[in-house]
Design goal:
By secondary structure, this protein is mostly helical. Helices cover 77% and strands 0% of the residues. The chain contains 20 helices and no strands. Helix 16 packs parallel to helix 19. It is globular and about 65 Å long.
């Protein structure tokens, strides 16, 4: 059976797989103390279970996207779910902290296959649905995937807290096994089969996979992200020239090889896609400044416990989940441009209102602030997803979606670094106002880019109309 008859089931299965990455990026936070005690490591060491996952996800998303384009998105998705099952079944038996981090890296790689594969399969799902006489609008399908991403991040701390409390840190790995099996079974049954590809000798496959380009790309990205993460207390300055050299080597390689991992010439020519990446990265700096900074401010300045802080942050995710279907319908009615500009304007308001926290951290006030911020998050996120879908060439949908997710992680890491620098002297009302000011200024830049910087050969922002297939 294919998605021609069951597009809803196919997208549901893809969404289940997609939620695994955000779920595991947030669920681990409540297990740090338990892991620290179990393996007798300090707090700086134990945070590598988070850092390793972030780095592997950021570098792995474009790589998995290229594999989806090269070998087929359905095939890659199924492989990724198998990796998740194996990694999460074995990691709980790890005898060292290093083995746990290795399991987290394998988990990141496995979950990194889901989003690029889902985006790459959307065209065949909608085409199959239309052939069967049932038209399912792309924004609604993207909305379902967006809800899965948001839900995973939202329920992660709550689910993780319950699992760690009653079953130990091992349970945050085991819980992924049935979820991955469910996603595997759904995609196996309902997702469209990949087109038949010409079988080639292993030597040719390796040559066309651009291994040197992939190594240079991963090296440049990983060293730069580690440099940013370690700016405080003492920067690892030697990583900066390594990252620059690897990036230069990557550009040189991609411009010379016949089979580039990332075709830089085509990417440079696709200004709509570049604008999507730039705006999405800035948007995530703003969003994660609030998502990471507000809990820290509430605990250290407001005196709230970790549990109460989690509850105060919940409206952000709840509003996002509830409002996403309405944002999808808005895109269908008024287009991506109007929806995106409205969401970017709301982002400025939401970021600016966070300054109220410097005057009061009363629970009612915090609940209103987090709920208000959930509106632009859902609107901009789904509009950017639709813009990505429209701007990317169909044959490059996987790697385009992978770079899109990397932009998300880069934004999160830059936000973390910025907060670390601003909060060096303590989390006070004045430092919180400084963080809010930077976030609000970036939100203004985000809107300005969307309004004033228009790609050539189009009068619309990325995503209003799909580009013609070359």
């Amino acid at each position: 059976m294919t998605d021609a008859k069951r597009p809803g089931a196919a997208v549901a299965a893809l969404s289940v797989g997609t939620l695994l990455n955000p779920l595991n990026s947030s669920m681990i936070a409540v297990a740090l103390v338990s892991l620290q005690h179990s393996f007798r490591v300090d707090i700086a060491t134990v945070t590598w279970v988070i850092t390793s996952f972030y780095l592997a996800s950021a570098a792995g998303q474009p790589l998995m996207g290229r594999f989806a384009d090269r070998f087929g998105p359905r095939r890659l998705f199924l492989f990724g779910m198998l990796v998740v099952v194996v990694a999460c079944a074995l990691t709980p038996f790890a005898s060292s902290f290093f083995a746990v981090c290795a399991g987290r890296v394998a988990l990141a790689v496995g979950t990194a296959t889901a989003f690029p594969s889902a985006i790459a399969m959307l065209r065949s799902i909608t085409a199959g649905s239309a052939a069967a006489g049932s038209r399912t609008a792309t924004p609604r399908l993207l909305g379902r995937i967006q809800i899965a991403n948001t839900s995973g991040a939202a329920i992660g701390p709550v689910l993780g807290g319950v699992l760690v409390t009653f079953l130990g840190w091992q349970a945050i790995f085991w819980v992924n096994v049935p979820i991955a099996i469910l996603a595997f079974a759904g995609v196996w049954l309902f997702a469209p089969r990949d087109p038949e590809r010409v079988r080639a000798p292993l030597r040719q496959v390796v040559a066309e996979s651009d291994i040197p380009g992939i190594v240079a790309f991963v090296t440049a990205l990983a060293t730069m992200l580690v440099f940013l993460l370690d700016l405080r207390p003492q920067p690892l300055w030697w990583l900066l020239p390594v990252s620059i050299a690897a990036a230069a080597l990557f550009v040189w390689r991609e411009l010379r090889t016949a089979h580039p991992f990332l075709d830089l010439r085509l990417l440079a020519a696709n200004r709509r896609l570049l604008m999507v990446y730039l705006c999405f990265a800035i948007f995530n700096i703003v969003y994660y400044s609030a998502f990471f900074g507000l809990p820290q401010f509430l605990q250290e300045h407001g005196g709230y416990s970790a549990g109460i802080t989690g509850l105060l942050m919940f409206p952000l995710a709840a509003v996002t989940i509830v409002a996403t279907p309405f944002a999808a319908r808005a895109i269908e009615r008024v287009g991506v441009r109007a929806t995106l500009l409205w969401g970017a304007s709301a982002l400025i308001v939401g970021a600016g209102l966070l300054a109220v926290g410097a005057a009061t951290t009363a629970p009612v006030v915090v609940l209103v602030l987090t709920a208000v911020l959930g509106v632009p998050y859902c609107v901009v996120s789904i509009a950017m997803n639709q813009a990505l879908y429209a701007a990317a060439r169909p044959q490059d949908a996987g790697v385009a979606a992978g770079i899109f997710q990397t932009a998300r992680y880069v934004g999160a890491i830059v936000a973390t670094t910025m907060l670390g620098l601003l909060f060096t002297g303590g989390t006070t009302a004045s430092t919180w106002l400084a963080a809010v000011s930077v976030a609000t200024a970036l939100a203004v830049v985000h809107l300005a880019l969307l309004v004033f910087v228009r790609p050539r050969r189009t009068k619309e922002l990325p995503g209003d109309t799909p580009p013609a297939t070359p």
